[in-house]
Structure formats: structure tokens, C-alpha cells
């Protein structure tokens, strides 16, 4: 099971995730997020560390130059586009790094394949998150109905996100889809916004063994 821990705001915690062999770390560049990384972690720190963990920059409706600057400054491996970015934007960025296109799943969403169809050829992964208030762009701490995904073909590796907590290991083990690639955890593994509970993450990892 691939695991992404999103909303990292401390370099020390990035080092700890590396030590735990977590696969992906999410650095949020969206200024309105309570987990906005800002200048709390510098690009020099990240580049000098030469981490094996994949660094994912999370953006909401960014400008193309903003993306390129962040990719260069932090050595990002992947860009996660979490807003209403167009397929054209995804295609442009995919020439630089891998792209995760996030989709917020609302109650009543009927056709996942239709939702993602325009992005099929222009990104590397999908991420399915719980829809909340428009301005929240994720981080709701709530789960959507995963059975919606079981009915869809999808046909691209996807991250499952939205309200996954320390007690959900068995539920995740029971979720089956041929393209289910990774889980994305955030707010349920925090002591406060942006400060992760490393003991809870370790316990969660052990539950998968």
C-alpha cells in the first residue's frame, strides 16, 4: 500500500516521514490552507536532504509560472492540482513533472468515469477527495462513499483521500479496485493543523503489516 501524508509544514517531520519509508509527502502551496507551508520549509533544506520520499506540491488554481518556480525551488517530483485546473494546464505541467489531478466527490456524484474523462490523457494519477465548502478544497475530515469508485473503470492509478483516520486500516484493506494505488492522509493524523502525530502514523503503518 502506497501512502501519502499531506500537509507537512515542518522539515523535521519531513525527515521523520523519510525515516518511516512513507512513499509521498504533500507540501501545500495554497495560501488559504491552514496547512500552507509558506516559508516554514525552504527549497534549500529539501534539496540538500536528497530524500527518497516523493515530494508532492499541492496547488489550487495556480499560475503556470508559479508551478515552474516551485518545481525548481523545491525539486518537486509531482504536482497535485486540487482546483478547477483545465486539461490543458495538466498537459503543460506534465511535460515537467508527474501530475496528480484531484477531484472532489460530492454526495450524488453518479459517474466517476465521466468526471475524469477529459483528463485521461494529460495526467499520471487521479486523487479522489471529499467535497466540502468550495473554499476548503479538501481537508474536510469527512469520507465520501467509496463504493462509487468500485462501480467505475477509472483505468488510471488513483489516490484515495478524504477523512481517512488511524482506525481505517481494515476498511482500506477491504477496498478493492484494480487501479487503487495509494491512500492520502492528512487531518485525522494531526495534533494541530500542519503538525502530524507521528505515533499515530507509525501505528497506522504497523496495522498494514
Overview of this structure, please?
By secondary structure, the protein is an alpha/beta fold. The chain has a single domain, classed as TIM Barrel, CATH 3.20.20.70. The protein has eight helices and ten strands. It has helices spanning 11-19, 43-49, 64-74, 87-94, 112-116, 147-150, 169-173, 198-207; strands at 2-6, 24-28, 54-59, 78-81, 98-105, 125-130, 158-160, 180-185, 190-192, 195-196. An eight-stranded parallel β-barrel has the order 1-2-3-4-5-6-7-8. α1 (11-19) links the parallel β1 and β2 (24-28). The longest helix is centred in the N-terminal third of the chain and has 11 residues, at 64-74. The radius of gyration is 16 Å and the shape is globular. The termini are close together. The model has no long low-confidence stretch (mean pLDDT 93).
CATH class: Alpha Beta
CATH architecture: Alpha-Beta Barrel
Q: What is the CATH topology?
A: TIM Barrel
- Spatial arrangement of strands, main beta sheet: 1-2-3-4-5-6-7-8
Distance between the termini: 10 Å
- What portion of residues belong to β-strands? 15-25%
In DSSP terms (H or I, runs of 4 or more residues), the helix count works out at 8
Helix content: 25-40%
Number of E-state strands: 10
Topology order in helix (H) and strand (E) letters: EHEHEHEHEHEHEHEEEH
Q: Helix- and strand-based class?
A: alpha/beta
Q: Indicate the mean pLDDT.
A: 93
Shape: globular
Major sheet details: 8 strands, parallel, barrel
Rg, alpha carbons: 16 Å
Amino acid at each position: 500500500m502506497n501512502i501519502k501524508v499531506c500537509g507537512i509544514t515542518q522539515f523535521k517531520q519531513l525527515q521523520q516521514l523519510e525515516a518511516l519509508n512513507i512513499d509521498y509527502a504533500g507540501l501545500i502551496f495554497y495560501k488559504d490552507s491552514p496547512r500552507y507551508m509558506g516559508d516554514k520549509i525552504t527549497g534549500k533544506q529539501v534539496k540538500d536532504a536528497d530524500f527518497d520520499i516523493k515530494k508532492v506540491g499541492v496547488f489550487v488554481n495556480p499560475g503556470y509560472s508559479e508551478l515552474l518556480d516551485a518545481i525548481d525551488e523545491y525539486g518537486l517530483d509531482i504536482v497535485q492540482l486540487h482546483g478547477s485546473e483545465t486539461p490543458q494546464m495538466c498537459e503543460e505541467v506534465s511535460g515537467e513533472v508527474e501530475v496528480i489531478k484531484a477531484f472532489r466527490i460530492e454526495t450524488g456524484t453518479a459517474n466517476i468515469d465521466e468526471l475524469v474523462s477529459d483528463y485521461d490523457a494529460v495526467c499520471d494519477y487521479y486523487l479522489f477527495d471529499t467535497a466540502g465548502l468550495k473554499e476548503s478544497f479538501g481537508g474536510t475530515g469527512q469520507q465520501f462513499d467509496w463504493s462509487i469508485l468500485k462501480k467505475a473503470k477509472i483505468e488510471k492509478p488513483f489516490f484515495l483521500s478524504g477523512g481517512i483516520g488511524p482506525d481505517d486500516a481494515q476498511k482500506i484493506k477491504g477496498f478493492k479496485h484494480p487501479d487503487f494505488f495509494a491512500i492520502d492522509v492528512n487531518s485525522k493524523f494531526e495534533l494541530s493543523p500542519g503538525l502530524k502525530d507521528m505515533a499515530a502514523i507509525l501505528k497506522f503503518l504497523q496495522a498494514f503489516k
